[in-house]
């Protein structure tokens, strides 16, 4: 099926073959041999879901090794000037019938693409595939069939062979390789554990240094519970676990919340990577965590507990009901890459929202045209690609009528290539994240927040689709002794509702079921039919609005610790309200538990009564006095003593805030005044103080001779007032950009080479060379589309309105915990409910609204 070189045939083709070496001479400097570490994308286009299976095949650049579909390869050629591409095409063919009527095996070139994914439907008796490869030279589309070892120059032959035999660029994402990527820690066998009597409870953990309650790590030497790194998805901490290692040298820590009978996430600070600990059960038992008993419980003695959940799987997936497949725009499924259903369920819901459709699919031509040199590593490009894949209908086409008749006659299905595989998207958005980069099941709620924060960090101009989820929460904290109050505000993106188990309406049935279940277990009889607790939604809403106790509350009125209570209300209502039912917890035996309940979620929701009211007449505010700073006795901790040394401002938190678009000095003040508690806490300080006239003034600390910006602020000044390094300028100018553009890009991105290239492509019109450093500073501070300009008295970019909503989607989870099981989403489109279950997209007959985990509501226009 190979065509002759140079569009010729016969004698012309032979003549051309003899001149192949001369033909390729001008392009030899641009042809590279893939080195170790180079990612070769020979299975998927960087801008679409075209592949060698597609009609137009796939073009792989022989310099960058990026893959492009037929409609996108010209753009890459125009942008980069790269002319030589390898064209890969897989042909699906019918097998030739043999004399006995059966099909003859006929696999030619079957091993050409060693790492190319194959469609399972092709393994039947009637179909097989042929693979074809050729070099294509742009712009004239000269074609050179491969293999062509005798006529091609040696370098080209070696490069082609290396591309064809290259491994998947996603191998670390593959299910079979996840564990292989981890090595046994050199400390596992000889780890010394202190006999200090520390016992870790199954819940209620918090960092022993900053009281944070997420991303917590248990040090396996002394039992310290400390926070990890802060992430933009709202999770993380202040790096106290790493600080503890640097101070004490205790190398291994396990992440709390990841412990299962099969293992846990272990990190070695000394080896600076995630590791395996073969003795993890013994190491955890030292602190009272009995993994071995957990294993017996889940897989042995209580195996019957899992069986009733089969009904949950059947109900949520609508098994046993013949569902009508849906095709066309907006009805495209997503392939499960192995525990990636959490990602698919969230993205199906996200791209059913018009604001996300407009931001990414509506702006697709602009995003693609100004994408960086490596579009596989650009968030907006990959979001636009995925959105177009889901919404275009290009990958969701119904079978032709003739094919349907043939399938019915033969009672079989021809190969179908409907649906998209989000492998490139998952590899990028999970990069560097300890949880999402693994191939284990994850919490859809955590991924939703992770995705929203990626949207925040990569917003396109002034348009930020995540604004539709953002709202302000007013927290009213009251000192129980003085009765004085404090009002604060924070930004949030979802409403978390507790499950009010005590309000179950079928308590008698539950008691009777539990008795029957225990009797059946004792007698080894089949378990009775499962009875779920029926929880009124109103009870969950009431539990959300009730006051909660504040741990370790320090009253500024009493200048001492006191009892305190906190209530939360909405300072604003978002355009789209996301509601999470908090179904997951830990039991006393450390086994992750899921509350298998039915909540009567309403189609229409009114939460106007939860509108915040602010300080009320007769209420007296708590004095604005910070807790006293305790001077530690240990001289190692003197840096925490603000009276002995100048304050140490956490510059990593400062830069994280500055990247959001806030003025640098405001970020420094926020981090300082919140006691280096991390970027998230400092962000809340910014929201509360951004209307003050001295918001962006330099930080001035009494007793230190004025402005406290000299030491650490020098880091922020680099690239703004100073000239960028000449070698970086030369490197960018060597790529064809003007010198003044290179300097401006480096100054605007703090001399980050990759970010500077992205800046250049996102600013196609170069600024005047005379632009002052202050203008560049202003541009950097507003790079994320004018957060400050949009900020009003209620905070940044808030779309307030009525608190009346209607349900349009929900994500359901099946299984015993967020670390296992399966997710599907139900979305209401064109007046009817549709179920999205990986690649399967069908009209829903019985949407299980009462068994959802995350619900999506849209505001009802007033």
From TrEMBL:
EC number: 3.4.19.12
PROSITE patterns linked: UBA, USP_1, USP_2, USP_3, ZF_UBP
Protein's name in the database: Ubiquitin carboxyl-terminal hydrolase
Species of origin: Chrysemys picta bellii
GO molecular function: BAT3 complex binding; cysteine-type deubiquitinase activity; cysteine-type endopeptidase activity; K48-linked deubiquitinase activity; proteasome binding; protein-folding chaperone binding; ubiquitin binding; ubiquitin protein ligase binding
Presence of keyword Phosphoprotein: no
Keywords associated with the record: Autophagy, Hydrolase, Metal-binding, Protease, Repeat, Thiol protease, Ubl conjugation pathway, Zinc, Zinc-finger
Entries under InterPro entries matching the protein: Papain-like_cys_pep_sf, Peptidase_C19_UCH, Ub_carboxyl-term_hydrolase, UBA, UBA-like_sf, Ubiquitinyl_hydrolase, UBP13_Znf-UBP_var, USP
Alphabetical list of SUPFAM superfamilies matching this protein: Cysteine proteinases (SSF54001), RING/U-box (SSF57850), UBA-like (SSF46934)
One GO BP annotation of this record: protein stabilization
A Pfam family the protein falls into: UBA
Recorded catalytic activity of this chain's protein: Thiol-dependent hydrolysis of ester, thioester, amide, peptide and isopeptide bonds formed by the C-terminal Gly of ubiquitin (a 76-residue protein attached to proteins as an intracellular targeting signal)
Assigned protein family: Belongs to the peptidase C19 family.
Chain's gene name: USP13
